[in-house]
Design brief:
The complex is a heterodimer of chains A (319) and B (291).
Chain A (H helix, E strand, L loop, with lengths): L2 H20 L3 H26 L8 H18 L3 H25 L4 H21 L9 E2 L14 H24 L1 H11 L1 H6 L4 H27 L1 E2 L1 H4 L2 H14 L6 H20 L5 H15 L4 H10 L6
Antiparallel strand pairs in A: 1-2
Chain B lengths: L4 H32 L6 H19 L3 H28 L3 H23 L14 E4 L2 E4 H23 L1 H11 L1 H6 L4 H23 L9 H16 L4 H22 L1 H18 L10
Antiparallel strand pairs in B: 1-2
Helix pairs in contact in B: 1-5, 1-8, 1-9, 1-10, 2-3, 2-4, 2-8, 2-9, 3-4, 3-8, 5-6, 5-8, 6-8, 9-10, 9-11, 10-11
The chains are: A mainly alpha (319), B mainly alpha (291).
């Protein structure tokens, strides 16, 4: 990772700070903060799914783990927000490791991996909905206690900067991974697992590192969500919506790229708000568009378009 | 543990009845898996669509769900055929994870289209026989679920005949076993894929008509079935028809008993745990042959 390669990420950070200075509309700020939270969760999915080719349908498990552990520690045990968030992220990473250790050791891949991750997320959702410490179906409120020391801010622009810094960190981690030995091995596993194993890549170790890191990032997004909205329940934290959106954003924006999740999250949230403005609040219409978009992106892989254009530019025709 | 035997017996009997319909839902899923080798993630959403179709058939045309069964099965066969032929096939280009994503996209579209049209309210159909019961020894059984049980067994027998005695059935099995070989002897593989998907979807239409008299409809109702159906398919062995039926009965009983002991909300966990355990420990299923 050279300083030059980090320039786009720095540019994103500058843009976010500028936005936080000049945007005053709460609606717009809310949109931006939510998009950033989604982008961080999606960046987590991207590490495992985009670079490693392991399509999880249950990243809500990690999002919810980060959110609940952080919120429970603050609310039930009086822990300060900073260590609470750190514990939330750690818990999510450990959960990722534990799920990975079971699932990858059993050799589950492809559709089976997708389904089993979904089942784990559902088990956690039902548990969170039925146990005492999570607040059950009523959910969990974090008491309002404004102040940077409690990681609670009165103005949304501070959250915008916080979210942007976290996403920039996530992107730096992704970039560092991309340039690292682990990243190369992960891509090798994605492209051809048997060939990677034959070349001496420790498949299980690579996948376990990837899922732990992936879970940590998505868990961070969950903890940030709890900090921003100060309320979670089982259908928010462990709901299928976040599993689906964490998967859609990188796939639509470009899976296996540093900026893909952010671009995808912007497209998804932009479409969602755009349809609400155009046709009012008919529930589900934005998600119908997401579904159509997903099928179209799979049908016509967008990530190949730059390559096709470049090839034509050089006069070589389509590859 | 603390329950008298007649309550346990009733729970087991009701579990078996519900399990038969689960088995029917799983039958469509396992058939599609066995032939196309794809996990059809839209299966639950297609069931939701079928339930709304049966609901509308009753509301608009005054058609009893049992009378709507055959026309809806035909309609859904055509729909499934076209979806596979025009959407899933071309969009996924034979790639496993693409198929997963395309069927996920389909399920998102269908589920939210139902949400946009019918809103998120839970609806039930009140029919004269909805609450009717029949007494069998000490056990009270719901008549709609008993009918569901019977029709499922009949349908499974029909499917068996279709697969073993007809040319289409032979072609389906040929494609399932050896796609390239089937294509070489002149079988239209894309057509057989679509036919199989159509049969799987038609199974859902029938399951929807069997469920409707005793079950609610909501845009997310298919979700309640989809993981259950996947569990059954995994348990019974991917692609195994008998496995799907037996697995369905087994899961029905497990759900009924765990609901009795842990309450309804925690009771669902039993199914997911079985699903995870079977995948981790015995991915070929309890009745499945090794691939």
């Amino acid at each position: 990772m050279t300083p030059r390669e980090t320039l786009p990420i720095l540019g994103f950070l500058v843009a976010a700070v500028l936005l936080s200075l000049f945007v005053t509309s709460n609606v717009v700020l809310n949109f931006l903060v939510f998009t950033l939270i989604l982008a961080i969760a999606a960046q987590g999915w991207n590490l495992l799914g985009g670079y490693g080719g392991q399509y999880s349908f249950g990243h809500a498990a990690f999002f919810g783990m980060g959110a609940y552990v952080s919120a429970i520690l603050q609310q039930r045990f009086g822990v300060n927000a900073y260590p609470a968030v750190a514990f939330g992220i750690t818990a999510a990473a450990l959960l990722g490791y534990a799920i990975g250790a079971m699932v990858f050791r059993a050799g589950l891949r492809g559709s089976y991996f997708a389904l089993v991750t979904l089942a784990f997320a559902e088990v956690l959702r039902i548990l969170a909905n039925a146990t005492e410490i999570t607040g059950g179906a009523a959910g969990l409120l974090i008491s309002l206690n404004l102040g940077a020391g409690n990681l609670q801010f009165a103005n949304r622009s501070s959250f915008l900067i916080l979210g942007a810094v976290l996403l920039a960190l996530a992107m730096l981690i992704t970039l560092a991974l991309e340039k690292s030995r682990l990243g190369a091995q992960l891509v090798a596993v994605r492209e051809n697992e048997a060939a990677a194993a034959a070349l001496g890549v420790d498949i299980l170790a690579v996948k376990l590192r990837a899922i732990s890191l992936s879970a940590a990032l998505t868990g961070a997004a969950g903890a940030l969500y709890a900090q921003y909205f100060l309320y979670i329940d089982s259908n928010i934290a462990f709901g299928t919506w976040i599993s689906v959106e964490a998967l859609l954003a990188p796939i639509i924006g470009g899976a296996g790229t540093v900026f893909g999740p952010l671009i995808g999250a912007l497209i998804l949230q932009g479409l969602s708000e755009g349809t609400k403005m155009l046709i009012g609040k008919i529930p589900g219409v934005d998600l119908i568009i997401f579904g159509v978009l997903l099928i179209l992106v799979v049908r016509f892989p967008l990530h190949r378009i730059p390559g096709l254009l470049a090839a034509r530019w050089r006069g070589k025709g389509a590859p | 543990m603390g329950y008298p035997p007649e309550i346990l017996l009733e729970a087991v009997a009701n579990g078996l009845l519900m399990g038969a319909v689960y088995g029917l839902v799983a039958l469509g899923l396992t058939l599609v898996y066995g032939v196309l080798h794809i996990i059809n993630f839209a299966h639950g959403a297609l069931l939701t669509l079928a339930m709304y179709a049966a609901f509308v058939a009753h509301g608009v045309f005054g058609l009893d769900p049992y009378a709507a069964m055959i026309p809806l099965a035909g309609l859904f066969f055509v729909f499934g055929y076209l979806v596979q032929r025009l959407v899933i096939g071309p969009a996924s280009r034979g790639d496993d994870s693409n198929m997963l994503l395309v069927t996920l996209g389909l399920s998102i579209i269908i589920e939210n289209a139902m949400l946009a049209i019918f809103r998120s309210d839970t609806m039930t159909l009140r029919l004269p026989y909805t609450m009717s019961m029949v007494e069998l020894g000490d056990v009270l059984l719901s008549v709609p679920r008993l009918i569901g049980f019977g029709v499922t067994l009949l349908l499974a027998a029909l499917l068996f005949v279709l697969m073993t005695r007809t040319d289409t059935g032979r072609a389906i099995r040929a494609v399932a076993k050896e796609r390239t070989g089937a294509a070489l002897v002149g079988i239209d593989v894309a057509h057989i894929y679509a036919v199989t998907f159509g049969i799987g979807t038609a199974c859902l239409a029938i399951a929807a008509c069997l469920l409707l008299p005793s079950f609610y409809v909501s845009p997310r109702v298919g979700n309640a079935f989809v993981l259950v159906a996947f569990t059954i398919v995994v348990l019974g062995g991917m692609g195994s028809v008998t496995g799907a039926l037996l697995g369905g009965l087994f899961i029905g009983v497990v759900e009924s008993l765990s609901g009795l002991y842990f309450g309804d909300s925690l009771g669902q966990i039993g199914i997911f745990l079985i699903f995870i355990l079977v995948l981790l420990l015995r991915p070929t299923g309890l009745f499945g042959a090794r691939a």
